[in-house]
Design a protein that fits this description.
There is one protein chain. By secondary structure, the protein is an alpha+beta fold. Helices cover 33% and strands 29% of the residues. It is built from five helices and nine strands, in the order αββαβααββββββα. The strands form two sheets. Strands 1-9-8-4-2-3 form a six-stranded mixed β-sheet, sandwiched between helices. Strand 8 and strand 9 form a beta hairpin. Helix 3 packs antiparallel against helix 4. The longest helix is centred in the C-terminal third of the chain and has 16 residues. It is elongated, with a radius of gyration of 21 Å. The N and C termini lie far apart (45 Å).
Amino acid sequence: MRRAAAALLLLTAACAGPEVAFDRSYDFKRVRRVGVAAFEGPSGAAAADLFTHELLASGASVAERGRLEAVLSEKRLKAGGALSSADVRRAGKALGVDAIFLGSVTQLAPAQSFLVMEPRKGSVTLESAQPIGAGRLTRSPALGAPGASVLTSSAQVGLTARLVDVNSGAVVWSAHQSYEGFDTDSAMSAVARSFAGSLAPLWAPR
């Protein structure tokens, strides 16, 4: 019980809110409808879907992502992979949205577990645990394996997102957050929810 509570405490400590920057002169209340493009990086489509879900849950009007991706993909091909401010403006106006969210998955590491053998004499052998990386670790006894324990690293997710106004092509909001959770899906969902929550004081979606 104490180990479970300690693990929960460690994960809670890793759940600080996002780092947010925004244009204080921008009128966010005029944003009535938004689009969410697939994030760049591994599992970028999943990140965009989760962010879309959280935006809808907060009351935002979100354009269907398939249509947005079709328009943006065509423009990426013409631009050699990069999107210009003009491309974002044209895509936004074609879909009738006021702003478009773009983003990146900057970190994605699943939770990992390792069986660690403890010799009768000497220190714990950690050779098999080297791939863990920088994630937080929890340790618990290995049931049915006397003298052994299970070392588990938390899942790690990092996301960045930015909101681009389709009229000016300017970035008016940007956020970044790294999060550690029990698995990548729940960690990514938590970041998406945090991003949507940070927008709530700024705009009045309908």
